[in-house]
Amino acid sequence: MAAEFFLTFAMQETLTRVSSIVAEGIRLAWGLKGELRKLHESLTMIQAVLQEAATRPVTDKPVNLLLEKLQDIAYNAEDVLDNFAYEILRQDQKKGKVRDCFSLHNPITFHLIMGQKIKEINGSLDEIQRLATRCGLGLIAPQHAHGAPEISLDRQTESSSEVVVGRDGDIFKILNLLNGSIDQQVLYVVPIVGMAGLGKTAIAKKICELATEKKHFDVTLWVCASNDFNKGRILGEMLQKIDKYTGGLSNLDAILEKLQQELENKTFLLVLDDVWNEDPDMWDDLKDLLLKINKKNGNVVVVTTRSKQIAGMMETSPGSQHEPGKLSDDQCWSIIKQKVSRGGGATIASDLESIGKDIAKKCGGLPLLAKVLGGTLHGKQAQEWQSILNILFSAGVLMKEKQ
């Protein structure tokens, strides 16, 4: 069923973002980490439901009802996480690079609204779990060796991913970089670098999808690096993506040996998403281990990072970096429309479209902000759209780089 494919992808995406945002929430002292952790645990459970639901007949009405409810929850969770991601951007750059007066991001308002939304989603997921039990679907979450719920990091799992608006040129250029070097080096590193909100991760996901489709690599792996750039953790997650039944390996030499066995005579594409580590020694240590996995030419690491310093540190060939540009106003409007219509391509009334296009002009070319605003506009009437536009106009330029 197409619904299961969509939902499996959506939940994989949401799980990964929850795990990353929990870490950011702790760093920024949001006070919502308990609710976010509960959301993560619930979504992990739901993945097991989806895996079993995929084996049921299309005519199974209770399962279809469950999937419909899950689809609504997945969209709501994505909207919440988009808002968290934008808050991370705002917090990180509030000292001058980014200026905004969008009322949602008043700290007290933000905490109250997001806290309530996450509680509502968690409540809905509790109900889904009860419904799943009545349908006879399993609810046992996959486990790590240490007993914590598994965090799925394979964001590019299904081909039914959302359309990546305005990035065909970026994707084409990076694929050409990969193809041009695929047999030239044992390990070729391509950093995708740029400010937060540009859609670097979305581009990397599309690269993975197309590389897998065209069979450029034998194995495609995804690890969210974030603030925990630990060689043991990264190699361990690589191994778990290859063999999910591997458990109990904490020794780095044992993990490396197992990776060597699994990837002997195979090429791999590894995405290290959201790298913050600026220590060249830590990168050199990880790179040395990656080079030991096999000696076959054609292995590639795609890195996403906000830092040009990190991109320069990690690249293996001059000119291998790629920095995506900002989107046009029309492209931002296209993203807003996707979020408003929940990806369904529904026609938007002309009065809303006129207001929406003005709102798109206030996105500053950032797809993340377009997604946040699109999620905010969903289900609202023209008067509420106009109120949001008025807020943006009263704030002047919502997103403005410091000159």
Automatic annotation (TrEMBL):
GO terms for MF: ADP binding; ATP binding
Stretches assigned to coiled coil: 242-269
Pfam family, one: Rx_N
Disease resistance N-terminal domain: residues covered: 10-99
Family matches, as Gene3D superfamilies: 1.20.5.4130, Helical domain of apoptotic protease-activating factors (1.10.8.430), P-loop containing nucleotide triphosphate hydrolases (3.40.50.300)
Domain NB-ARC, chain residue ranges per copy: 173-341
A biological process from GO: defense response
Keywords: ATP-binding, Coiled coil, Nucleotide-binding, Plant defense, Repeat
PANTHER family: DISEASE RESISTANCE PROTEIN RGA4, PLANT BROAD-SPECTRUM MILDEW RESISTANCE PROTEIN RPW8
Protein name, entry field: NB-ARC domain-containing protein
Organism whose genome encodes this protein: Salix brachista
Lineage: Eukaryota, Viridiplantae, Streptophyta, Embryophyta, Tracheophyta
